[in-house]
Amino acid sequence: MKSINIEFEDIIGRYLNINVDDTNYRIYVEEAGQGIPLLCLHTAGSDGRQFRHILNDQKITKNFRVIAFDLPWHGKSNPPEGYELNDYKLTTNLYKKIIMSFCDNYKLNEPVIMGCSMGGRVVLHLALEHSNYFKAVIALEGSDKLEPYYDLDWLYRPDIHGGLIQSAFVSSQIAPQSPDKFRHETLWHYMQGGPGIFKGDLYFYWHDGDFDDRSGLIDTSKCPVYLLSGEYDCSCTPERTLATASRIKGAKAVIIPDIGHFPMSENPELFKSYIYPILDEILE
Amino acid sequence: MQSIETWIVKINSNKRLIEKGRWVNLTFTFGIGQNDYLFEIIEGKVISTTKRTILTRSGTFKIHGEKIAWEKHWLNIPPRDYHDIFAMLAKKLIIVDGNLTPFMQNLQYFKDLIASNRQSIK
Fold it and tell me: What is the pLDDT of residues A14-29, one digit of tens each?
């Protein structure tokens, strides 16, 4: 039989099952690299594909085992059995439990956790509650509180196409400088979201996950906190990120010019120039 | 900022935009400072634009911003907060009002239609 040389990317995708509150969740996860675990959390209404440029970056994966899983109801992680009985609504407790259960089942030891948007919010919760477990947290487009600026009901109703409205809403959060091919790839993920899932995620991001009353309790000497936000993010604005950083003693915040709410997927090369020094600092 | 007439020619010659708006059949009000314009759209094409002089004539919905806000929105690289009408909405730089259902049903079309007055968009 002739040998065939196939040029695969470095990313390996697999499934595992976790149990949270007596419910089984079948989780899809991708990983690449070796070294310190770097667990990546996607934005509301999207999935782990947003991190493909990080997973495929050998400058990162030579020192970090990059891991990105799809939350249940997202990407290739199915909703649990019986999902049809209720509208999806992500609570802070469920979100935290899923992440910690994943870490436990995946046998992660002192991971760095990097989340974007709602992922950038939940990592702040985790920095407070699991400061001895996480080596560091990186909040991309992260803040401890946001002010809603549109009515979430538009996202989930039969007379409006869910995929198209989700994509159209978040297109406002991408910088005009970002390359078109990555802008539209980022939007495609939103077009593919399940009905009501983006809306259900925003329940956490805009309401249940508010954290400004506790973010000041984070001890950055135990768990360093990095905040990176894009100039053009009109959801988690630079001002909101800087206000959050001002409440967390020792947090390091950087505003990235010419980028929006999806730094790792809308302009990966620009994003990498800002994430490399942070990862280098964590390595030291 | 280009004239309304030049803008309409650009809209109607943008084949992809017209495709995306092929289900849009309505009149909406677009406000620039003190001036309102009624954009009559049939199957995604702008059939007429009329300066609104009689206040009892109005569109299904209205999008309004000050002239300076639209001028910034229409720069080739708009500054943050002005780069998208939803970013402008978040900053209260524009208002939207009226029956928003057809606006939301065709949101990217209306975003692209308005942004198409940017000089960088041919």
Answer: 999 999 999 999 999 9
